[in-house]
Every structure is written in structure tokens, then in C-alpha cells.
Amino acid sequence: MHSKRRKVESSSHSDTNRHDEQEALGKWQVTPVLDDDVMSDKVMLLDVYVDKVTDPKHTSRLIRDLNALCPIPSLQHLKRVSKLGMILNLAPEEETPEICLQKLKDWGLDTAGLGCEPRRLQVPAVPPRTRRQYEEAMKLWPCNFHENRYLEKVLSGKLFDDTDRLEQQKYMTKCLEAARYSSESGGAGVGALVVDPAKKQIIAIGYDDRGRYHLKHAVMVAIDLVSHSHGGGAWTEEARSRYSHGSPGSSDPVLKTGPYICTGYDVYVTREPCVMCAMAMVHSRVRRVFYGCPSPHGALGTTIKLNTLKCLNHHYEVFAGILESECKNILTTCPKNSVVNF
Amino acid sequence: MVNKWMDEALDLATEALKAGEVPVGCVFIYNGDVIAKGRNTVNETRNATRHAELNCMDQTAEWCMENVHDFATVMSAVQVWVTVEPCIMCASALHSLHVAGVMYGCKNDRFGGHISVLNTALLFPDPSPMVGGLESDRAMQLLKDFYKGTNANAPHPKVKKITT
Ligand SMILES: [Zn+2]
Ligand SMILES: [Zn+2]
């Protein structure tokens, strides 16, 4: 979709800029990097035995008795009864309908009101996580659903409006400057920026300098510059270099004291981060990561999605595609990329 | 055999504990010599990525400058001795540098990049061999001592004994 073109009467510099920015917005799309469980519309299935209810007068009693005699904890998200009948029990492959029914009778079920001809049916195996999954699941069997409104907004692409996207574009443009500098000075052509979204304040800009030192990926450099701006840091020479920028801590009256100095901050980076950088951002408690183009070694969507590993103690949100083609262009003109392996 | 390199790494971890850092220590061995000794400096640097292994890498880079050696060549011959399973970040950095081998003490249930959380070797075409379980009780005891003490920054870890 094309952004609405504003008629530029005046040729003043800022108006032209604004016009260009608006036009550029139409050229990229932001894509959330989410757990596969959430992205998929496929419903995982499970076999159960279902029996017709021949006398509706018994329905509520049957539900009560079945829930007491034969609860199915793994199927809490499903209603016990539907137009198709009553779920009796799970249906393991080797178990015949007769065995299923006999077991229930042995456990003391009064089968009055049931057709006593159970048939195998496939029902949704896990609770739906998105509205789309819910709609698919409902085609098979009625189920409960607790909508995550934030997630629905992310999925619908309505999380960010044009103001947000202009801001993302602005930050990524800054990253691109650092990326260009990286490319010219023997790095991998990647730039990164850390911003405090609450104050709209850029905290640090770093560029990839792996030509000089293997670990100086743009993200690692930017994180260290944030530490530097809070009175710490390990790579102090970075703070003096041209395209590295760490805003002095004195501008922030409340210096953060712990090591988790990126708490609440967003990171912008021109290329999908590698697994080292992705984990460095977990350690630093970054809030959100915005990247431009994917990388064959990327750990936020391409090889893995580190942000979706449930066992980690911190999870940031990830969005891809900001000024994607510009970010990619710098990489293709960067000689360093033929030799790097992550 | 009691390993002197792991002893050195454990000494560094003890030093970290005394300094109020997560007690992890690491030494890099090149041609039979220690060329880097590192420990966590996360609080000191206010940088949550300053783990023992990365500090050793920085030292190795300096050592290479002073001794006019190629960093990548030296790293590919380095034996890493570290008291705790390298985290996903450090394990990735070590694989990417093709270190000769990694020997570690106890598991890292929260962040481990070898067997605990994510096997990072699968993400690299030519990963480095890693072996755990050396002096793991001593390494684990240091972590327990740390998390027993006052630590405002980190949540309580679920530390388990290595089972192998
Ligand atoms: Zn990286
Ligand atoms: Zn680490």
C-alpha cells in the first residue's frame, strides 16, 4: 500500500524531508518474529471417543459423572459435550470402542441417555493461542479461548501506526549511517542503536568493527556503550570513535545501578543479530529488538528464534523488516561479508 | 587427576565471589601456558555481557597484539577451562572462534549453551568440542554460596547437580 502523498507547496527543507520520509514508509513492512505455536493456523489433533446423547435429560448428569469418573486434564480447553455428542475418553490407538465403554461402566458410569456406540473423532489437542487458531479449533469442537489482545494486535499488523513507523524509520536511518561507516572501515556493514523509548532518547550507537576485533559486533559494541554511559563499560576506546555515540550519564539524573542497564530500552540493528548478540540482549534485558534484513546466521527468525525460548528468564519482542532493502544493500556492497561466519 | 587449570579457574571464580560477582572463572591455555585469566565483571562494568570467557578473549586479543600473533590462529589452538558451562552467548563466541576445546565444571541451567538450554554447536558449521563435569561440585558450591548471599540483581537459580 502506498502512503498518502502530501502536496508540497513550499520547497522548504523540512517539508521535503517529511515528504521523503512519508514516501519511504510505503517501501517497508514490519513483521513480528513470534513463536511458531502462535504463527501457525494448524490445529494439533488428538483422538477421542465420542458418543451420541440419545436423551438430553441426562446431559448434565452425564457431564458431571464423566468429569468425576473420567476427568481428562489435557483437554480442559474443550467442552465435554457438543452437537456431535459427549466426549467419553481419550482414544489410544489400540483401544476399541467396546473397551472404552466397558471401562467407563466398570468405573461406575450410568450409561442411560447415551447411544452406547462410541466413535473415534479428532479434536483440538491444545488450547488455541490466537483467534485464528480458535476459529479453526471451533470447526472441530467447541472450546474455551482467552484472547490475548496485545498478541492479536501484533498479529493483525495494527500494533504500530504511522507515527510509530516514522520513528522506527528515523532510528534505523541512524543505524544505517553507522552501518555505512562499519562497511568503510573494515567491519561487516552493520550498525546498531539503543534507545530509551519512554524518553525518545538515543542512548548509544555502535557499529560493527569485527575487522579489528572478532567480538565487536554492532550490538555488542552498542551494549558496552550503554554501560559506558552509566559509568561502566569494558571497551572504553569505543566511546571516542566517530560513529559510536554514548550519551553521557550526567544527562540522566537517575543512573541505573545494576548490570541490567538496557532494561526498558529498544535496540535497532540493521541486520538480524547472530546468536551471541541475541543472547547478549537477553542478558542485558532489552525490551524490544527491531532489525532491518535477515541474516543466514541470524538467531531471531532465521536459524532459531532465541526470543521464543521458554526456558530463558527474559524475553524481548522482535520486529523485522525496518528499511529492509537499504539495510541489505549495505551488506551486499560490504567486502567483509564474504568471509564472516556469524 | 586433579587438574591445575581447573584449579586456577576455580580460584578466579572465588575471586569473583569475593568481589560480589557471579562466581565464574576461566583460563585460556595456549601451548601449555596460561595466556588469559578471566572472571565475571558484570557488576563492575555494568555490562551484563562481561562474562569470564569474553574477558579472556579480550585479554587474548591484547596478548596477541603484544606478542605479534594472529588472534584467530591463536584462538583456534586455545584450550578453554571454565568453571561453569558457557552460556549461549559465550558458547557461540567460542564456537565462532573454533577454539580447540572447552572443559567446564558444573551445568548452567539458566543460560547454558552446551546441553542445558540450547546446543549452540548445531548453529555452527565447525563447532568446538565441549566437555563438562570437571570439579563440578566445587564450581556449584561457589554458585550456591553466591545465591545464598545478598544479590539484588539476579533471580534465584535452579541449580542442580550434574548427573553424568
Ligand atoms: Zn553478533
Ligand atoms: Zn557467558
UniProtKB/TrEMBL annotation, chain A:
The gene is adat3. Residues 1-24 are annotated as: Disordered. Keywords: tRNA processing. The keyword Membrane does not apply. Signal peptide: none annotated. Belongs to the cytidine and deoxycytidylate deaminase family. ADAT3 subfamily. One of its GO terms (biological process) is tRNA processing. Residues 166-319 form the CMP/dCMP-type deaminase domain. This is Putative inactive tRNA-specific adenosine deaminase-like protein 3. GO terms for molecular function: tRNA-specific adenosine-34 deaminase activity. It comes from Cryptotermes secundus. One of its GO terms (cellular component) is nucleus. Residues 8-24 have a biased composition (Basic and acidic residues). Gene3D superfamilies: Cytidine Deaminase, domain 2. InterPro entries: CMP_dCMP_dom, Cytidine_deaminase-like.
From TrEMBL, chain B:
This is tRNA-specific adenosine deaminase 2. The keyword Transmembrane helix does not apply. One of its GO terms (cellular component) is nucleus. PROSITE patterns: CYT_DCMP_DEAMINASES_2. Gene3D superfamilies: Cytidine Deaminase, domain 2. One of its GO terms (molecular function) is metal ion binding. InterPro entries: CMP_dCMP_dom (IPR002125), Cytidine_deaminase-like (IPR016193). Pfam families: dCMP_cyt_deam_1. Keywords: Hydrolase. GO terms for biological process: tRNA wobble adenosine to inosine editing. Residues 1-126 form the CMP/dCMP-type deaminase domain. CDD domains: nucleoside_deaminase.
